[in-house]
Amino acid sequence: MNGFADASEYYLREYTDECIKEKLKHYNRRLRPLYEQLHAYVRSKLRKTYGNCISETGPIPAHLLGDISAQKWGGIGPITLPYPEAFEDLSENLKQQEYRITDIARLAEDFHRSLNLSKMPHSFWKKSIFTKSSDRTMTCHPSAWDFCDGQDFRLKACLKADREGFEAVHHWMGHIQYFLQYQSLDVKMRSAASDALFDAVGGALSIAAFSLKHLKRLGLFHGRIDRKADINNLYLLALSKIPLFRSMYVALSWKWRVLSGKIKPENYNSQWWKLVEKYQGLKPPVPRSEKDLDPGNIYEIICGDPILKNFTALILQFQIFKELCEKSRQYQIFDKPNHLHSCDIYQSVDAGEALKTMMLYGRARPWTEVVKHFLSYGQLSDELNPDAMLEYFQPLHDWLKKENEKNGVYVGWTVSIQVD
Ligand SMILES: [Zn+2]
């Protein structure tokens, strides 16, 4: 197999680190306490809605989390919010102000311009598809396109002018920005230093756009920015990031076991659910058998998108965000511990310059080098490090712990069958 022990080794070829599999386990362990607190809190809240059909100490039925693949739990945000009285629904505010998705894209472009990044080219506005069109069959998973002629860059997605659309436009415009920055390179060098870095830049920009200060500036948040508003905001972001992180880990574990032959075809589905139960604390809504193939519900598995890219991008986007905050002098760890979430990088040319420099390399240098060069001394220990992600969510983590303790909520879940 071209020198690879099995296909899982082939998928790891971008990662020169020989202990990458061990490291991924380590990252997963680091995120576990936060996930368990979030899971416990969500389960206790869902029990208030659905009653005893959800066990107090067992896995959560996967269909109750507001998303068909149970990867992003944002759909249950409204019924599980920490402080409903302090909540302002971004989707509702966008609707009331009659935003269209292209108006949101204009906001995203203004955000890029404020960082002194490039404006979106004419083709982007003229040829992108932002909403599902009825005159053709479309794959709705968003994608960004560089037509490699130095002029034509487009986005294709089926978005709505709501919170999800706001997040997606800010994320995907980050990809177009990456294309624009490395345009002067030879065509062979025109791609990001790694897929994960490409994705993480979009992720970092969308995290930045969700800062309450920025939403307030846009007239999309009217309340007071206080502890309650902060916890609500962190909670909603955590619902879209932390369960996804865990789900990507399960998808990776399953895929590697399949590729190495450890999981045999006759056990594909049962082994899938064992992993889901062990790492995500979820269970299927109805009994499953080997006639089903539930991993096929995960986009990355069915479409062959690199799962490792998404997993590492989740970590890296918080490192990039933290660095942008430091560069914008909006955040200093020694002055204000645990306030990473309140940084607002809008109009920081220094942050934009640093990001631009990183993107300008294209793939002319290894991604580890590019990232190390971008990160300042505060984050230099490793090119991948979940510290920034944990720091970002620390205020929420503390809040969840207290809340779960106060209400006597069981943290963790009983596992019915051990994974091999
Ligand atoms: Zn992306």
Distance between the termini: 26 Å
Radius of gyration: 21 Å
Briefly note the CATH topology name. Neurolysin, domain 3
Number of folding domains?
1
- Low-confidence segments, given as residue ranges, are none
In which range does the helix fraction lie? 40-55%
Number of strands: 4
What quaternary form is this?
A: single chain
Q: What is the residue-mean pLDDT, rounded to a whole number?
A: 90
Backbone structural class: mainly alpha
Strand order of the largest sheet: 1-4
Indicate the CATH architecture: Orthogonal Bundle
Largest sheet: 2 strands, parallel
Name of the level-1 CATH class: Mainly Alpha
Apparent shape: globular
Strand content: under 5%
Order of helices and strands: HHEHHHHEEHHHHHEHHHHH
Q: How many helical stretches?
A: 16
Present as ligands are: zinc ion
